[in-house]
Amino acid sequence: MNRRQASRRGLLRGLVAAAFIVTGFAAPSRAAEPHRLALQISDDDPVKMRAVLDVAANVSRHYSGEGGDVEIVVIAFNGGLDMLLEDRSPVKERLVNFLKSMPNVSFIACGNTLETLAAKEGRRPPLIDGVSVTQVGVAALMDLAEKNWTIVRP
């Protein structure tokens, strides 16, 4: 092997080593990203609604106990929308407490489901204060999944 070939091999080895070093240092910056969890509720079942709130509380507690950050969003559509309605939520008191004490947890109602209820009942049912609305709940879940959020249906 001549000097030129040896020099190329040395340069190549140096570049490969540098790539490993850069990759190794880049990994911790990804760890600084908050964990992201989207919880789906689409059933008019108080047991499942309580399960969604339990999961949100447990995951939030877990990551905060490790010194990490987690963003949690609960998206309600179909029968699950009752969870977020002022006049009929079976978990209203607990949900209101979440909104007051857990800023990392948010609640989103499906606008299509709200429109369906409005047509059926002759008025749009009121949402619990602090709940936001998206036009299509399932599309919101899909958008979050495409942004690497973890989607769970307890």
TrEMBL record:
InterPro entries: DsrEFH-like, TAT_signal. It comes from the Bacteria. SUPFAM superfamilies: DsrEFH-like (SSF75169). Residues 1-31 form the signal peptide. The keyword Calcium does not apply. Keywords: Signal. PROSITE patterns: TAT. PANTHER family: BLR3518 PROTEIN. This is Sulfur reduction protein DsrE.
